[in-house]
Specification:
CATH superfamily of chain A: MetI-like
Helix content of chain A: 55-70%
Distance between the termini of chain B: 41 Å
Number of strands of chain B: 0
Order of helices and strands of chain B: HHHHHHHHH
CATH architecture of chain A: Orthogonal Bundle
Largest sheet of chain B: none
Structural class of chain A: mainly alpha
Largest sheet of chain A: 2 strands, antiparallel
Shape of chain A: flat
CATH topology of chain B: MetI-like fold
Number of domains of chain A: 1
Structural class of chain B: mainly alpha
Helix content of chain B: 55-70%
Oligomer: heterodimer
Order of helices and strands of chain A: HHHHEEHHHHHH
CATH class of chain A: Mainly Alpha
């Protein structure tokens, strides 16, 4: 990186450290921080959307839709989440390949499950075996995002369902008295008011989402845990210009601090949003705010 | 192999008894059930011990956090913040790396690098922090009248804590604590997926489930079995904790008793 880094064996102290921390692999580590942030930035809205859909479905007057909504939200209870993550990645991958197989190779006559193998025709493979490396990585990341969204969508659905029920009944009754239809009352009265009830649950969910990002590592994405393990291991002088003993402790300590800072910042920001949303609401906190101002 | 033979061979495989080699070739449903069930022993071991020991530290942390003396309050606050604010997954990695480098200093730390002790310590601290926060919340919501009544009887210090504060705190916190127990058991599945190695393929339920999923490339059998076992375990915890809950609330009139509600709180 820097001009004086050409011969690392002559360096000492801070200058050695500055060169060491800017090697190509360390840059990969810094990039993987953005991978985590990207995952959060995509997953949060998608999961919220899934959750909103499922919560509305669970309130629906159509019975099968209600079953679907309730079933989706209740599968997540009682089972360790990590099992979902491990399950969905393989299951989704196989589902996509199976669908493509049905479309692209209709005259394939062998069974797809042959003993312990899962065989689809070459044209149905995802991604195609001829495609470049970055397609494989992006596909892996896409699967991870989808898995995260499905699991956290179920949790968000649970929170939003509770929030919809927490909106005072009188509000809906007033809407009906004004002659609003079911749909109008839902979009104009219920949805704008439910957020203040949903926010504590959703901010809890956000914290949990942050804390579950290291599971990306289990899904085969090269994230910060992967690079911390890679870089922290013992490096012999034969293979690298920066030999060092096992430094896993330092790398994981850095990750720990990173996550602590991240949760702290989120906590402060979410507190602000909560104060903002509470303003003028017919809740105890809103009332307290009004009295404090007066 | 018939199913009975399979059970004989693999029922305690996770503890190192029975057949040394894991099943191979065609995997039967019986092998799935036996081996994953055998792994569940580790989940119960980690969960039960961490919960039982963590309880005491949790009470100490809650009392410390509500203390007016910063000498007690600050360490408790930091402990709770560090363990609740960071992913359990990273805590496992960090602890394993720590124990590994301590091992070089003294052979006293040898057992700490294996899962049965090292992971247990992490889970112990983790559940103490989470339950400490729950108990702290309960301490804050003890009815003012209860404390005033204790004062009127002239109770102070340890006597008041033992007879009034502690039982009320426990009663108020119990529904949330039930949840904490359930999710602690779920968190035990992370142990063998973080730094801690599964020695001689003696792992927990998820370890064997993912072993089967890797070998057969079919996630639709082992993971539902795992889910089945965990739902059973969850129901067992709910009934055990519900029994204690009824005891704690025995003196209250029927309608004031708090019922435990299974609320979501997830991965840590």
């Amino acid at each position: 990186m820097f001009s004086y880094c050409t011969d690392p064996s002559t360096l000492e102290g801070l200058s050695w450290l500055s060169c060491y921390l800017t090697t190509g692999k360390h840059v990969n580590l810094y990039i993987s921080v953005f991978v985590v942030l990207t995952l959060l930035a995509i997953t949060a809205p998608v999961a919220l959307l899934f959750g909103f859909g499922a919560a509305s479905a669970a309130r629906s007057r159509i019975l099968p839709l209600r079953w679907f909504g309730k079933g989706y939200t209740s599968i997540v209870r009682g089972v360790p989440d990590i099992a979902f993550f491990l399950f969905f990645v393989i299951a989704l991958d196989q589902a996509f390949e199976w669908m493509r197989h049905k479309v692209k190779c209709p005259d394939w006559d062998q069974p797809i499950r042959q003993g312990i193998d899962f065989v689809v025709c070459d044209a149905a493979k995802l991604p195609l075996s001829t495609s470049p490396q970055w397609v494989h990585e992006t596909y892996g990341f896409f699967l991870a995002v989808l898995t995260f969204s499905i699991v956290f969508g179920a949790f968000a659905a649970n929170v939003l369902y509770g929030a919809m029920r927490a909106v005072p009944r009188a509000q809906i009754e007033t809407a009906e008295a004004y002659g609003m239809t079911h749909r109008q009352a839902f979009w104009r009265i219920l949805v704008p008011q439910m957020w203040v009830y949903a926010l504590p649950g959703l901010s809890n969910l956000w914290m949990v989402l942050i804390k579950s990002t290291p599971l990306l590592f289990l899904l085969g994405v090269e994230d910060i845990v992967y690079w911390a393990r890679e870089l922290g291991g013992t490096k012999a002088a034969k293979f690298t210009d920066y030999p060092h003993p096992n430094w896993h402790v330092w790398y994981f300590a850095a990750l720990l601090v990173f996550y602590l800072c991240f949760t702290k910042v989120s906590e402060v920001v979410l507190d602000r949003i909560m104060t903002r949303l509470t303003k003028g609401q017919a809740t105890a906190a809103g009332e307290a705010q009004r009295k404090a101002a007066a | 192999m018939s199913c009975v033979e399979t059970i004989q061979a693999y029922a305690f495989r996770s503890l190192g008894f029975g057949e040394r080699l894991l099943p191979r070739g065609e995997y039967t449903l019986c092998e799935h059930f036996t081996l994953i069930g055998s792994g569940l022993i580790w989940n119960v071991y980690f969960g039960a011990l961490a919960l039982a020991t963590g309880f005491f530290l949790a009470v100490a942390l809650a009392v410390g956090k509500s203390s007016s003396n910063p000498l007690w309050r600050k360490p408790a606050e930091w402990f709770i913040f560090v363990f609740r604010g960071s992913p359990l997954f990273i805590q496992f990695f960090f602890a394993y790396a720590c124990f590994l480098s301590l091992k070089g200093v003294s052979s006293f730390f040898d057992p700490f690098t294996s899962a049965w002790l090292g992971a247990l310590i992490v889970l112990f601290c983790n559940t103490a922090a989470y339950s400490g926060e729950i108990f702290y919340g309960a301490l804050l919501s003890i009815p003012k009248g209860d404390i005033e009544a204790a004062d009127a009887y002239g109770m102070t210090g340890w006597n008041r804590f033992r007879r009034i504060t502690f039982p009320t705190m426990l009663r108020l916190a119990w529904p949330a604590y039930t949840n904490e127990a359930i999710f602690l058991f779920h968190a035990t599945t992370l142990v063998f997926f973080s730094g801690f190695p599964a020695w001689r393929q003696q792992g927990d339920a998820l370890y064997y489930a993912s072993y089967f999923a890797d070998k057969t490339f079919n996630p639709f059998v082992p993971y539902p079995i795992l889910a089945f076992y965990f739902i059973l375990l969850t129901l067992l915890i709910i009934s055990l904790f519900g029994f204690v809950n009824r005891r704690l609330n025995k003196h209250l009139p029927q309608e004031r008793r708090a019922k435990p509600r299974l609320k979501i709180s997830l991965i840590r």
